[in-house]
Amino acid sequence: GIVAATVLISVVIPYRLVQRFALSGSRDLPVPFLCVFDGALLAAPSATIMELNLDTFWAMWAAWFQIPYITAALLMSIVCFSALHFSTLYVLRETSATSFQVYYNMANFVLVLLGVVLYNDRVLDGPLVMGGIIVSLAGGVSYAMCSEAEEPAPKIDLPVKLMDGATAQAD
Predict the structure, then answer these.
(1) Does the keyword Membrane apply (predicted)?
(2) Domain boundary pick from 64, 79, 94
């Protein structure tokens, strides 16, 4: 578990930093183009991992598509993953990478709770686990509220109605 988490972190952090750099440096590039670029960038490691680990992948793939509910689940997974990636790039373009990670982690709490409810997972039985989840969620919510409060309100120049009927521009 620790090795897998370390590898994941060592891959995700540089990937997100490069993504953020590309998004901030190329505001005129359309997001679908950036999605294609990400797909091309990640195709090589994905194909390598697949080749090393799944000698019988294509036979399994054909067998999976013979079962209708697995086919439906795979297609829904592809659509949902693509939509998530597309929306991730839009959010990263508009906010900081830290804000995105906080929002993403807060959204994952919904997935954890769904796992607990749907599969009767006993994750919440321990008081330390429950405390950790509450502290982490509270930290995410407080970060989101504080970062929202720091953003300046947009300045809108509206005419102000004076007592005698004349108008003036507000400062």
Answers:
(1) yes
(2) 94
Give the tokens for residue 8: 């994941």
To the nearest whole number, what is the mean pLDDT of the chain?
77
Collapsing DSSP states into helix, strand and coil, what is residue 164? coil
Q: Which two tokens stand for residue 36?
A: 């294609």
Same domain, yes or no, for 25 and 80? yes
Tell whether the model's pLDDT for residue 97 goes beyond 60.
yes
- Distance, CA of 31 to CA of 12 (rounded, Å): 20
**Does an H or E element contain 19, and which?**
helix 2-25
Do both 103 and 67 map to the same domain? no
Contacts of 104 (CB under 8 A, 6+ apart): 88
pTM of the complete model: 0.61
